[in-house]
């Protein structure tokens, strides 16, 4: 089968940083399903994993943690899917990724593809949606009840990115007042079209901008980029007894003491935790993706597909990685269709 792989880290400008290969088609066992991959999307996780590979290896590594496709075979213990089912999922960071024609994945972290979306539109969603949903509801403890959230506010740092684009919609669906951040006019427009009530510039101090739109502080902060760079602004903007969820490593020492007097909760979100540690509640991601599909088919949540590339091969994946590394993408970049 065709796949795109890495052997060692090279700058994205080097044509050998991602290469086309032929490899054996895998066979499912246990609770694994074998998926014929129709579309994939690219995340910052892909570029981070690629950049860690400083030393060369004899065998190729296949990246990719967002896919949509068709189940073609199931392991002997599978109960959730059968051949022919259309699915979408983010996968498992500890296993080969989905940048291949066929891919093995545990059925417990796979959802049924929304009926109203094509494969590319669906592939844009899993990783970011799982991150946004778990960050908002499991980590920050945001209620699903709009009534319970009446009068509460959330600041989403990086509202026009992949996770931010979903987080804005889910936070608005939960009844929160949504304040997003961006630094460009087109990003601001994108986030507002998804439901953000207000937008501020994350390249400027937060507190004066929040005050200008009528907020002395916010109840929740969802930080989706540059954690260390935004730390002081977050410490100032969060309300007493507020909660901050972070998805990006801090990368440098920060002073957490200013948060003590406010009794602020700091929590992390990594949607790969369940699959990495084989937690007892892995199937929560199956249920969550199915619930998301219902919301999409009901018109309550939109896909965040920003750009399509075709076909799936190394050259287009290099282009997608380059765009992600620029830090200026809006929504998700999706690749579809391997060349037969």
Automatic annotation (TrEMBL):
<dbReference type="InterPro" id="IPR020843">
    <property type="entry name" value="ER"/>
</dbReference>
<comment type="similarity">
    <text>Belongs to the zinc-containing alcohol dehydrogenase family. Quinone oxidoreductase subfamily.</text>
</comment>
<keyword id="KW-0694">RNA-binding</keyword>
<keyword id="KW-0862">Zinc</keyword>
<dbReference type="InterPro" id="IPR051603">
    <property type="entry name" value="Zinc-ADH_QOR/CCCR"/>
</dbReference>
<dbReference type="GO" id="GO:0008270">
    <property type="term" value="F:zinc ion binding"/>
</dbReference>
<dbReference type="InterPro" id="IPR036291">
    <property type="entry name" value="NAD(P)-bd_dom_sf"/>
</dbReference>
<keyword id="KW-0007">Acetylation</keyword>
<keyword id="KW-0521">NADP</keyword>
<dbReference type="InterPro" id="IPR011032">
    <property type="entry name" value="GroES-like_sf"/>
</dbReference>
<feature type="domain" description="Enoyl reductase (ER)">
    <location>
        <begin position="13"/>
        <end position="335"/>
    </location>
</feature>
<dbReference type="GO" id="GO:0016491">
    <property type="term" value="F:oxidoreductase activity"/>
</dbReference>
<keyword id="KW-0479">Metal-binding</keyword>
<dbReference type="InterPro" id="IPR013154">
    <property type="entry name" value="ADH-like_N"/>
</dbReference>
<keyword id="KW-0560">Oxidoreductase</keyword>
<keyword id="KW-0963">Cytoplasm</keyword>
<dbReference type="InterPro" id="IPR013149">
    <property type="entry name" value="ADH-like_C"/>
</dbReference>
<dbReference type="GO" id="GO:0003723">
    <property type="term" value="F:RNA binding"/>
</dbReference>
<dbReference type="Pfam" id="PF08240">
    <property type="entry name" value="ADH_N"/>
</dbReference>
<dbReference type="Pfam" id="PF00107">
    <property type="entry name" value="ADH_zinc_N"/>
</dbReference>
<dbReference type="InterPro" id="IPR002364">
    <property type="entry name" value="Quin_OxRdtase/zeta-crystal_CS"/>
</dbReference>
<protein>
    <recommendedName>
        <fullName>Zinc-type alcohol dehydrogenase-like protein</fullName>
    </recommendedName>
</protein>
<comment type="subunit">
    <text>Homotetramer.</text>
</comment>
<dbReference type="InterPro" id="IPR014182">
    <property type="entry name" value="ADH_Zn_typ-1"/>
</dbReference>
<dbReference type="GO" id="GO:0005737">
    <property type="term" value="C:cytoplasm"/>
</dbReference>
């Amino acid at each position: 089968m065709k796949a795109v792989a890495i052997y060692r880290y090279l700058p994205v400008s080097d044509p050998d940083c991602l290469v086309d290969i032929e490899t054996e088609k895998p066979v499912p066992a246990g609770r694994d399903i074998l998926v014929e991959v129709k579309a994939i999307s690219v995340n910052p996780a892909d570029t981070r994993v690629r950049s860690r590979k400083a030393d060369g290896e004899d065998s190729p590594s296949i990246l990719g943690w967002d896919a949509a496709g068709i189940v073609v075979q199931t392991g002997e213990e599978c109960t959730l899917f059968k051949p022919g089912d259309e699915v979408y999922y983010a996968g498992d960071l500890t296993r080969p990724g989905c940048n291949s024609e066929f891919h093995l994945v545990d059925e417990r972290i796979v959802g049924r593809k929304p009926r109203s979306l094509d494969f590319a539109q669906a592939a844009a969603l899993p990783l970011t949606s799982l991150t946004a949903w778990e960050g908002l509801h499991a980590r920050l403890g945001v209620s699903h009840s709009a009534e319970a959230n009446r009068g509460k506010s959330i600041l989403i740092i990086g509202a026009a990115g992949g996770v931010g684009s979903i987080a804005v919609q889910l936070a608005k669906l939960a009844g929160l007042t949504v304040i997003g951040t961006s630094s460009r006019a087109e990003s601001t427009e994108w986030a507002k079209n998804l439901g953000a009530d207000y937008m501020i510039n994350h390249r400027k101090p937060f507190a004066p901008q929040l005050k200008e739109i009528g907020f002395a502080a916010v109840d929740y902060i969802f930080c989706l980029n540059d954690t260390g760079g935004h730390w002081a602004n977050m410490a100032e903007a969060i309300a007493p007894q507020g909660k901050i969820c972070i998805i990006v490593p801090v990368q440098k020492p920060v002073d957490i003491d200013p948060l003590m007097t406010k009794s602020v909760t700091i929590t992390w979100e990594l949607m790969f935790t369940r699959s990495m540690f084989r937690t007892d509640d892995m199937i929560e991601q199956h249920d969550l993706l199915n619930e998301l599909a219902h919301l999409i088919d009901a018109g309550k949540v939109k896909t965040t597909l920003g750009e399509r590339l075709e076909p799936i091969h190394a050259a287009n994946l290099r282009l997608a990685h380059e765009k992600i590394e620029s830090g200026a993408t809006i929504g998700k970049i999706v690749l579809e269709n391997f060349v037969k």
